[in-house]
Specification:
This protein is mainly alpha-helical. It has a domain of 101 residues. It contains five helices and no strands. Helix 3 packs antiparallel against helix 4. The protein is elongated, with a radius of gyration of 33 Å. The relative contact order is 0.05.
Length: 153
C-alpha cells in the first residue's frame, strides 16, 4: 500500500495532480487496489491490518461506483473477473497435477540403458475388450402376428 502511495506521488510530480483524477488513472488505481486486497484477503492479519483491509474494500467499492455508475455494468465486470480467475486457477491446478504425475515412475516403461528407453512391456500391456454387437430380435413372420382391433395385415 505504501509503495502505491509513493508511486502516486511520483506520478503527480511527473504528470501533475490533474492526471491523477482522470478516469484512466482511476481505473489503474482500482485494479491495483483490488489486486492488493485480493493478495491480503485470505491471510491472518492483525486488528489494524483487518481495519485497513475493510477501509480499502470500501474505498474500492466507492471508486468502482464512481467509475461505473450503472449497477449492471458493475455486476457484469465482477462476473467476468470471477470467471477469468476461476478458469486461470483451474488451469493452474491442472498444470500442477500434470507436473506432479510427470515424475512418477511409469509401470510399462523398462529402462535398459539410461540413454534409450524401451516402451511397451508386453507383460503390463492391457488388452482393450472388443465391442460385440448383440443380434437383433428375430422378425416374426406375418402369419404369427395377431390382428388388432379389426385391422387387416
Amino acid at each position: 500500500m505504501e509503495n502505491w502511495r509513493q508511486a502516486e506521488i511520483r506520478h503527480a510530480a511527473v504528470f501533475g495532480k490533474a492526471a491523477l483524477r482522470t478516469k484512466g488513472y482511476q481505473k489503474i488505481r482500482l485494479a491495483e487496489m483490488q489486486r492488493i486486497y485480493r493478495s491480503h484477503r485470505g491471510t491472518k492479519l492483525s486488528l489494524d491490518d483487518r481495519v485497513r483491509l475493510r477501509i480499502m474494500r470500501s474505498g474500492n467499492r466507492h471508486l468502482e461506483k464512481q467509475l461505473y455508475p450503472n449497477r449492471l455494468v458493475r455486476y457484469g465486470r465482477k462476473l467476468i473477473r470471477f470467471t477469468e480467475r476461476t478458469i486461470t486457477n483451474g488451469f493452474r491446478q491442472i498444470r500442477k497435477m500434470l507436473d506432479a504425475t510427470r515424475y512418477l515412475p511409469k509401470e510399462n516403461i523398462i529402462v535398459k540403458n539410461p540413454e534409450t528407453f524401451v516402451t511397451e512391456n508386453p507383460q503390463n500391456k492391457i488388452e482393450i475388450p472388443k465391442i460385440v454387437r448383440l443380434p437383433r430380435k428375430s422378425i416374426k413372420p406375418v402369419e404369427e402376428l395377431e390382428q388388432k382391433r379389426g385391422r387387416s395385415l
